[in-house]
Amino acid sequence: MLGRYSHVLFDLDGTIFNTEYAYTSALYDVLKAERPDTEETYESLTRFMGSTAEDTRIELNLPFEDTKRLSDAWIERVKLYEDSIKPFDGIMAVIRYLHEHGIKLGIVTSRAKTYENVLGEIASPLPSVLKPYFTYSISASDVDNPKPAPDSILKYMEITGAKREEILFIGDTLSDIECAHSAGVDFGLAVWGSRIKRSIMCAHYFMNPWDIIKVIFTHDDMNYQWYRWAKEIQAIGQIGLTYCTNVFDIERFERLREISCEIISTMTETPFEKVKDVICMDKGYITPKIDTRAAVFNEKGQILLVKESKNGLWSLPGGWCDEAESIISNTLKEVREEAGMLVKPVKFVGMIDKSKWNKSSQPFHILASFTVCLEGEGEFTPNSETLERRFFSVEEVSDEMLRLGTTTTEQIRMCSEAFNSKNWVPIID
Question: Structure pTM?
Answer without folding.
Answer: 0.69
